Amino acid sequence: MKTALVYSDKYLEHNPGMGHPERPERLKAIVNGLKRFSLWSSPEIRIVEPRPAERDDIALVHDPDYISLVEKMSALERPIDGDTPTKKNTFELALLAAGGSIKAGELVMSGEFKNAFALVRPPGHHACRNHGGGFCYFNNIAVMIERLKRDFRLKRIFVLDFDAHHGNGTQEIFYADPSVLYMSLHQHPLTLYPGTGFPDEIGEDKGRGFKVNVPLEPGSGDIEYGEVMREIFVPICEKFRPELFAVSAGFDAHFDDPLTGLRLSTEAYGWLTTMVITQAEKFCEGKVVFLLEGGYDLEALAGGVVYVVRAMLGERFHPPEERTRLKLIDELKMLLSEKWSL
Ligand SMILES: [Zn+2]
């Protein structure tokens, strides 16, 4: 068995309310897309039911007071910020999303599966140590990483975040931590929530040089992403030599997404995945865990996930041949040169 998809119908019960883009239909569209391509029932795939995370797991990342706040707000059905409402079941389902992420990580680290995709809701990458926001309550990928660091003594984890929004929560949590190399490709912070992720945010103290922010102008698409992956992602992997790849997989950089101005094709999710898997094969026996973040056009979202899963199963996709010159790449190489010669 090669690939695990961690999923529960319970994730459909998370409902931030009428008209909210982070809606249950997102996950229904993904499951239907995978069924349409006979991936849901593929002999190479197992669907694995998650267990909720324990409060102690969440506390590896978040302040206890913040965990209690989410629990209390959820009981009262009060929002934790303007974009991030709660219902009675929000706390419980946020624990299940973090638990599903831990599960996906364990399945890969134990060697039971080569790779895994946690198809979870609510998403996590905007959740900071002591505040949530941007549809996120607990930072699923950070909780997973802290559990895996503890249980499997991991020392080098590469997090690639290709959601169109900057993962400000993930960056904040690991800002001084050199064991987590966080690289984010996102729409320029002056043009999109949450307004962070400038190139000079490279980490602090021992973590300096381990945060790589690639803000892309609205209108950027496959050619720009291909360039950044070839010029920054591949060489930095070779220097960092990860023991695990974790991907914050958001699908809102797609050209049909209603929330952003980026222009990725659906196929791009295939070659982005192939590029990650190629590096993972080189350094860590192909160990990659994907976690669902955003993506708000149902067809683009489902299509993107289908490409990711096809690439996880071994199909190979290639970035565009066409090249371009981005000043941003020179700027990043210069900023990161105190740590890496790329
Ligand atoms: Zn997003």
TrEMBL record:
CDD domains: HDAC_classII. Residues 20-312 form the Histone deacetylase domain. It holds the Pfam family Hist_deacetyl. GO terms for biological process: epigenetic regulation of gene expression. Signal peptide: none annotated. GO terms for molecular function: histone deacetylase activity. This is Histone deacetylase domain-containing protein.
